[in-house]
Amino acid sequence: MSLIKWLDFPSLGDQRGSLVAVEMGQDKVVPFDIKRVYYIYHTEQGVSRGYHAHKNLKQVAICLAGQCRMLLDDGTTREEVWLECPTKGLLIEDLIWREIHDFSQDCILLVLASEHYDESDYIRSYEDFLKWVNR
């Protein structure tokens, strides 16, 4: 089973440009209630981010501009994918190790999260992650 799960967001618009809307309670694309939204931008060249997993949090990552490479790992399978389209979201479920690499200079990565920030939900060491998924 692939770790790569894409969500397609309808692009609305006309000759003036495009628009993607995500609405709480209306949108059936995101499979959870969104409790937190954040974005990553101006990442310096050569810098990677992530390097953690979550015990319960689910996320959708959408590259609004530019591109970046996401590595996902469930403790058995490792898969990589490029995020580079503002109408495609990558669903990242709980207990998936994630790393983000190769940010383009103009990359803006939007993340929709199922829960509010909770430091106790993070697994920040890969060794601890492997122990957690193999218990």
From TrEMBL:
Q: What highest taxon heads this organism's lineage?
A: Bacteria
For the keyword DNA repair, the answer is: no
Keywords tagged on the record: Isomerase
Q: Which SUPFAM superfamilies does this one have?
A: RmlC-like cupins (SSF51182)
Family annotation (InterPro entries): QdtA_cupin_dom (IPR008894), RmlC-like_jellyroll (IPR014710), RmlC_Cupin_sf (IPR011051)
Asked if the keyword Isomerase belongs to this entry, the reply reads yes
Membrane spanning segments where? none
List, in alphabetical order, the Gene Ontology terms for molecular function in this entry.
isomerase activity
List, for all copies, the residue spans of the domain called Sugar 3,4-ketoisomerase QdtA cupin. Answer: 4-133
Q: What is this protein called?
A: dTDP-6-deoxy-3,4-keto-hexulose isomerase
Instruction: Please tell me the species this chain comes from.
Output: Marinobacter maroccanus
